[in-house]
Amino acid sequence: MTISIAAPPITLPRSIYIEPTSRCNELCQQCPRTLLSREDDRDLSFDNFCFIVDQFPILDRVVLHGLGEPLLNNELPRMIRYLKARGTYVLFNSNGILLNAKRGQELIDAGLDEYRLSMDGATRATYAQVRGVDAFDKIWRNVHSFIAMQHEQQASKPAVSLWFTAMKENLHELPGLIDLAFGHGIREIHLQRLVYFEQGLAHSKQALFRRSTREELELVRKCEELCKQSGIAFNAAGSATPV
């Protein structure tokens, strides 16, 4: 007697990351793109994007970033619209340098769900030191104009949040960054853990996770309370609490 056993169904991911570009307009001193060998700079074409996406019958969530700056790819709004037509939740992290009025309107019109601003300092000097470019003032002008545009249009999306890579080099500026975020209408802040590989600022001696001093933990607790008083959601990526 022959017994046939049916193969179990293949379960594909329903949440994926797609990198629209490997190009970037910053030289972050904690980023492998700046400090390690990498592939040649290039953008993902819309056709190749569709080829990837169309292999997944169900996509609940797509994150449109990797190591590059997503706004450098002019096809990004088209990619977002394609995903939104499938009912997918779409988000990405961005440095904000290219968030001008034209691109901001394109993101609103495309239906982007989340725009995550990466910001690693509360002063122009610290930002330039960590990010390798002098763009601090321009970014905050862009953010201010973008959120004002959303208010004028009563656009609830994308939700704008701030993502801070915490290091010993910049942790002292977190209270000032909370004030900046509040003043510009951002009501959600996330503390990110440094991923280190012993080059530049991406060094284990800069890490806070399981290496924090009592003073550093106390500063984070004070920031947590400051956010609570200001009505800002304060979270840590991958953890129950910022501490």
Q: Helix/strand/pairing class, anyone? A: alpha/beta
Total count of strands? 7
Helix content: 25-40%
Major β-sheet strand ordering: 1-2-3-4-5-6-7
CATH homology-level superfamily: Aldolase class I
Provide mean pLDDT, rounded: 94
Q: Please compute the radius of gyration using only Cα atoms.
A: 20 Å
CATH topology: TIM Barrel
Give the structure's gist in a few sentences:
It contains eight helices and seven strands. It is α/β, with parallel strands linked by helices and 243 residues long.
Can you put this structure into words, describing what you see?
- This protein is an alpha/beta fold.
- It has one domain (15-236): TIM Barrel (Alpha-Beta Barrel), CATH 3.20.20.
- 35% of the residues lie in helices and 14% in strands.
- The chain has 8 helices and 7 strands.
- The protein has helices spanning 32-35, 46-53, 76-84, 101-110, 124-131, 136-153, 174-183, 214-230; strands at residues 15-17, 61-63, 89-94, 114-118, 159-166, 188-193, 233-236.
- The chain has a 7-stranded parallel β-sheet, covered by helices on one side.
- α7 (174-183) links the parallel β5 and β6 (188-193).
- It is globular.
- It starts with 14 loop residues before the first strand and ends in a 7-residue tail after the last strand.
- The model has no long low-confidence stretch (mean pLDDT 94).
